[in-house]
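ingest -> fold -> write
write: protein_1
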Amino acid sequence: MPSRSFTDLTRDTSRHLAPLRTHNPDVMQAFGALSKAALAPGELDGKTKELIAMAIGVASRCDDCLGFHAKALVRLGATAGEFREMLGVAVYMGGGPSLMYAAHALAAFEEFSAAAQGE
């Protein structure tokens, strides 16, 4: 896990992606469209899709993914219980390394939840 907060991590990652938006606009627009289409409510609601995305972020050990998806899950009203249950599935699918990242994901969710309560 990064030694800084997930709030800082997601802000810095967004800032570091700015040159890609400028120099690779077609790729970035296509990725944004893919994200929007994949996460749009359908047979599964948006929160369920974000829980799946977070589980994959845990299993693939992507710090930045943890931050962005934790923030989205807080915005979508995911409960701590739903989040912990999803982490159990992520650990099942990813083994020991996912267990370590589950702890990081929980820290990200708690950080964004605390910030949302303070708003």
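write: protein_2
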Amino acid sequence: MTNIFIVVIVLVVFFFFIQKYVLKHDDTKDFAYQKKTSLMTMQQAAFYNALKAAVGDHGAVFAKVNMASVLAPAKSNTKKNWFIANGKISRTYFDFVVCDPRTLEPRVVIEFDNGKELHKTKVEREKLLMHVCKSAGVPLIGTSVKHSYQVSRLKRLLAAHIDLIEPSKEVRFCRKCGSPMIIKTASQGDFKGRRFFTCSRQPNCTYTENYNVVFEIEEESN
């Protein structure tokens, strides 16, 4: 009994000194941090707003979701293979995931293409993305930057996988500030009687566009 008591005392003292040592040499306090300006770029934020508008109440939209939070490696014969497979997906993420609004079960994965030139890392990520979605049976939708401003197109893409989503009237977001746009009719000038989109933040944002415009991917500065 005395021996057990001595062992317990030794362990308590040992852990006390270890804790004091770790706290004394904790270097995390030596690093300063600052808040980022935004979780997304302007392009990504505009697309996110358009995607939420397209999904409506029929889904919950999440951005930059770690693949390992959505998928897991299938059962393997060895632990080594499982850890290798899990390591591949834990180091990257899905751009956007649309989930069931009640259960939060993933329904659709969406990859956002900003129109920039492909590089080796991006190509490898897209190969992994297509493989994991196909093997897990999760629908994958590829979208481009032009979908950030035309919600009706997004609805048509999503309707193939989420039955309750139906195409509706055209909805767009401002290409300059990302705010919702409203439809107006020209009352004078050469275009009198024609419909056009204008930013809802007027007069702070004066961006307008033709109602029937077809967007092309433009070269954007970094």
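write: annotation protein_2
The chain has six helices and seven strands.
The longest strand covers residues 106-113.
pipeline exit 0
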